[in-house]
Amino acid sequence: MGTRPSFPARLNNGPAPVAAPARPRAALPPVAAPVSARADFSAMRQRMVRRLAAGGVQSAAVLAAMGTVERDRFIDSALVAQAYEDTSLPIGLNQTISKPNVVARMCELLLGAELAREGKPARVLEIGTGCGYQAAVLSLLAREVYSIERLRGLHEKARENLRPFRLPNVHLLFGDGMAGYAKGAPYAAIIAAAGGEAVPQAWLDQLAVGGRLVAPVAGQGGQQALVVIDRTAQGLRQQLLEAVHFVPLKSGVA
Ligand code: SAH
């Protein structure tokens, strides 16, 4: 202990960009220019943060986390130019990385209510690791992040994507998140990145008193909306928020 730099510092400590060798002026442009590309991405990321703030994200902690995690590192190279646009993008196996404003909005909701008074939520469970981007954002907002993914290919991809960030508080799990993850319970916050017909009972059972769950849930006609459920000492309190579009929550592993 004590020698570890703070998380934002670690997040910026990805693999060092390789310095491009000096080349004559007439040379073809390099295929990849890591140094300038990283600088461009940093400027794009700060613009994204300003758009998030202009769009209503208020939490300084969430804005700082969104400004720290390099979303471009989670996007396939063919699509990387769009890494900081407010759009969801394919990550393979028919799944998508969520839009930045949805990630920020959900994180802000998690930090809301009773959690805010105690500072960082203690333990967070994320259902649907996907490429691992949101888990990295959550790692800056929570003490421990448990993130579960049902597709082995994506679980492994997330592991690879997150390796350079070296986040000791992110625990990637392979399994069916419909059952939650009892070993880490109770959670101060549970966040789902995939939407089912209803919130599985296991998630409610694993939510701490004072804790909050944020998940997309399909209503009549299949249209999803964001649902926030708070567990209070008196019981569960539910709020239905705006319409959203998440990939379906599926059971079993593949
Ligand atoms: N948070 C992710 C978003 C990924 S999309 C990111 O930042 O990239 C949602 C993910 O939920 C998909 O990868 C999908 O495979 C996964 N998923 C769907 N149902 C699941 C379940 N029952 N358990 C775990 N993961 C599930």
From TrEMBL:
Pfam families: PCMT
Location in the cell: Cytoplasm
Ranges of compositional bias, category Low complexity: 15-25
Keywords (A to Z) from UniProt: Cytoplasm, Methyltransferase, S-adenosyl-L-methionine, Transferase
Catalytic activity, EC: 2.1.1.77
This protein's record includes keyword Lipid metabolism: no
Region (Disordered): 1-25
Family: Belongs to the methyltransferase superfamily. L-isoaspartyl/D-aspartyl protein methyltransferase family.
The protein's name in its UniProt record: Protein-L-isoaspartate O-methyltransferase
